[in-house]
Each structure stands twice: as structure tokens, then as C-alpha cells.
Amino acid sequence: MNQRILVINPNSTEAVTRGIDEACEPLRLTGGPGIDCVTLKEGPPGVETQQHVDGVVAPLINLVRSREKDYDAFVIACYSDPGLHSIREVTKKPVLGISECGILTALTLGQKFGVIAILKQSIARHLRYVGALGVSERMAGELPVGLPVTELADENKTFGRMVDVGKALRDTHGADVVVMGCAGMARYRKPLQDEIGIPVVEPTQAAVAMALARVRLNWAGL
Question: What is the pTM of this model?
Fold first, then answer.
């Protein structure tokens, strides 16, 4: 039977899901596993507050339960990793969150990582998670571009701000690797890396890459 990975966008913005799907394309290898990307219809247009994070947990659990037999791993494609540990309780299949995977990948690429957030109010939530992961000492800083999820597809608004923030994280905060703090930024990874001259981690790619290894090596925790 063909192995498959399900990547779930917890917000309801289809443009974000399309960007995630495009970001996964380099990881679609001959012989699989296959990679499918879906939108959580019950989600808000952007997961931007703690209430949004909390509100998508139950729908995510229901979606994973309903598709559990069809997939070999699940990726939660939101930088707040909503419901990650709750979802791990309802399946023995690998469940990966893009924030956890993006940060862990960054730690292999540099000594100090910086994060590009969407909004200033996202940062406190992210810092709590970095503390829970126990990697605060390796974090250089986090700065926002000041745009909601629904506006990230507007390249004229977004890319210049991302470059400015990436350079500030590099030059002022001492980051030698940058993590993009929202799945909606996926399309900008390579051009951003070219502009700022240090590694840029797209966290959905990081999580899907880990899911591929888990599935291929049968690290399913069975």
C-alpha cells in the first residue's frame, strides 16, 4: 500500500494551503511517500491569537481521527503547533508540528536562530513555546512583519518587510539562521535566503522532511 502524509492547514485560507502545497513539492519523491495538503474548513482565516489556537484543537483532532486509517503521518502546518500533543494522544502515527520541527532544524544550521513573526501579538505566544522546548538560550530574537495571515500572499506588502526583519535579526540580534514564523510565508523562503545571506528555514518543509524520515524508517512509535 502506498504511504501518504497529510499536511493540515488549520486556518481556512485556501491561498495559504496552496502555498504550503507548493513548498512541499521538492519533497515529493519518486516512490513516495505521497504528500497531501488540506484546509481545515472550521478554522479562522488566520490563526493569530491564543483563542484561535485553542479553537482549532477539537476540529483538528476530529480530522485526524477521521483520516487516521488513510495516512501514515500528519503535519500540523501552523507555527503555534495547535493541538500537537492532544493529536498525538489519538493516533500512534507520527504527528509533527511545524514550529517544533522548524526550530529543531534551525538548531542544526546555526548557533542562534531568529524568527519572523506575522504580528507583534504572536511573539509572546511563540516565546512561551520556545521556553517549553527548552531552547531559549539559542534564540536570538523574534520580530514581526506586522501583517495578518490573509495579507501575506501580497508580495508587494510582504517580501520587503520580511527582508528588513530578516536583516535586523541578523545584524542587530545576532541570528545566523532565520525561521519563518508562519506557514503563509512559505513562498518566500528561497528569495529571502538569497537576500539576507543566511539559512532560512521554512517550517512546513522542515516538518514534512522529518515526517518522510519517520515514515520511511518506520519510526512510528508502534
Answer: 0.93
| 62 & 117 share domain | no
Output helix, strand, coil percentages for the chain, rounded to the nearest 5. 50, 15, 35
Q: For residue 137, give the C-alpha cell.
A: 538560550
Q: Are residues 91 and 143 in the same domain?
A: no
- Grid cell in block for residue 164: 528588513
In sequence order, what E strands does 95-208 have? 95-97, 113-117, 139-144, 177-180, 200-201
Q: What is the DSSP letter of 114?
A: E
How far are the Cα atoms of 136, 144, 170, 221 from residue 126, in angstroms, in the given order? 11, 12, 19, 27
Domain that holds residue 112: 100-202
For residue 222, tell me if it sits in a domain: no
Note whether 83 and 213 are within 8 A (CB): no
The sign of the dihedral angle between the CA atoms of 194, 199, 200, 206 is positive
Mean pLDDT of 32-50: 93
In a shared domain, residues 40 and 118: no
Q: Copy the grid coordinates of residue 58.
A: 477539537
pLDDT at 149: 87
Counting residues of the chain whose pLDDT is more than 90, the rounded percentage is: 86
User: pLDDT band at 153, cuts 50/70/90?
Assistant: confident
Residues 6+ positions from 175 with CB-CB distance below 8 Å: 110, 112, 113, 114, 140, 141, 169, 198
Domain membership of residue 130 (yes or no) is yes
Q: Report which secondary-structure segment, H or E, holds 39.
A: strand 34-39
